[in-house]
Structure formats: structure tokens, C-alpha cells
Amino acid sequence: NQTKAAKVGRTLKQLGGKSGGRGLLAVGCIVLGLAMALQFAVNIQLTLYSDDYWYGTFFQQGLWGFLRNTAQHYLTTNGRVFVHILIPILLLGGMAVFAVVSPACTALLFLLGLRVQDRSLGKGALLLAGGMGLLSLLGSEIQYLRMALYWLSAYFNYALPLLFPLAVLWGAEKARQGTCKKWGFVLLCLCAFLAGASTEQVGLVALVVIVGGWLLWDWRKPGKEKKLYLLPVLTAGGYATILLAPGSHARMGRGID
């Protein structure tokens, strides 16, 4: 979907140059808004499912109960501490909060992915390509969507974490151009750590693309942004929190995929 959206974006960029950027920007806003509204319309009909009920019990005994349950979960059940902290917190607001947050994050996934692939896209082309990409995703087979996009716990395990490696790739390029402020670099470092500390699958992808990007663009190359070596180091450190977690070893011992 990202590749198709990028091709569409390049075509729209050419059209935008001919017909004017304001019209394309308006169309892009409308298409992306409609795509997000469509996802929201489906989300608002969803109910809790499977693991959602268990994570919903983490706050039953207040904040200390949440901290105790989270620590026990990390030590005995699963090493994905970051995403599994987010899920109980979001469940405090119920499925209505998820219905709003999910379309915004999914749209941001497409926009970041498109921007990483082609930094020359104008705003109108970017928004329109992102909206069309989101629509194509929503048109996928329901058996795949219900196990990722339309299940709260699965969304936070397998979709949301993709934002962090994309944010690192986007932010690293800004740092190379010298347009990343100090507070922005701090956020970039945080995203690098969270990209690795998300899940086993996304963490591995993040490790490959962030380390690979550093080796391709920064290693042994002169420049003032030598501190970019922190990004692969922090990503590896985040991934270690999963691999070395007692809960991950307990999970493997139970034979859970």
C-alpha cells in the first residue's frame, strides 16, 4: 500500500504542478478526511475482544495496581512493556477513544511513509496519496483487518509501533540537513528507543532500517551530525528490553508464537 501510494503521489505531484496546488490541497484534505471518517465509522461499532478484557483489569486497583500488574506482566508473561503500558491506559477511555486515535495514527503512518520515500511531494499530493493509501488499506480482506486494524490490542502491537521507525528515518534526514533543533533530536532519540522496544517484529524491522540507514548515510562520512550514531545504539537498546525480558523467555518456554 505504501509503494502504490508513493507512485500515486508522484503522479499527483506532476498534476499539481500543472493545475495549481491549492485545488490539490483541498482535494487531498477531503480524501484523507473521508478515509479517516470511514475508519472511524467502522471503529465506533467495535467491541472489546480477547486480550482487551485482560488489559482492562490492570487499573482495577488503581495506579499501584496498574504498576504491579505491568511489572508482573513484564517479568512473567511478555517483554513488550511499552505497547502493553499504552493499552490499559487507552482502555480507561473505552473504545470511543480508540475509534478516534486509530484513524489519526493510521493516516500518520501513510503520511510519514510517503514523506520518507519522497521528500519532494507537495502537501496536496502528500495528503491525497495518503488518503488513497488509507482507502486501499480499508479495502483489504476483512480476515486480515479484524486481526490488526480492528482489534485494539493487536493494533497497538502491530500497527502503531510502525510510526516510530518511520519517524526516526524522517527525523534523521532533517538532522543531516541541520534543521533539527535540540529538543527535536531528543524526541528523535526517544523514537529510536521506542522503535526497538515496541514488539519483536517491529523492533527487528526498526533495527535493520535504522542501522542500515546509518551505515549507508552516516558511517565514515564527514559531517557535523556525528551524534546520529546514537539512533542505532538506542534502537538496539530498546530491542534488548524485549529480547532480555524475563517475560519473553517465559513466553518462549510456553511455546507461544
Tell me what the structure shows:
- This protein is mainly alpha-helical.
- 74% of the residues lie in helices and 0% in strands.
- It is built from 14 helices and no strands.
- It has helices spanning 2-19, 21-43, 51-55, 62-76, 81-91, 95-117, 123-138, 142-145, 152-158, 163-176, 182-196, 200-217, 230-243, 246-253.
- Helix 4 crosses helix 14 (246-253) and helix 11 packs parallel to helix 13 (230-243).
- The longest helix is centred in the first third of the chain and has 23 residues, at 21-43.
- The radius of gyration is 20 Å and the shape is globular.
- The mean pLDDT is 83.
Keywords:
257 residues; mainly alpha; 14 helices
In short:
With 257 residues, this protein is mainly alpha-helical.
Query: What is the molecular shape?
Result: globular
Give the total of beta strands. 0
Order of helices and strands: HHHHHHHHHHHHHH
Approximate strand percentage: under 5%
How many H/I helical runs? 14
| Overall average residue pLDDT | 83
Most strands sheet? none
Q: Low-confidence parts lasting 5 or more residues at pLDDT below 50?
A: none
Structural class of the secondary elements? Answer: mainly alpha
N-to-C span = 26 Å
Proportion of helical residues: over 70%
Computed over alpha carbons, the radius of gyration is: 20 Å
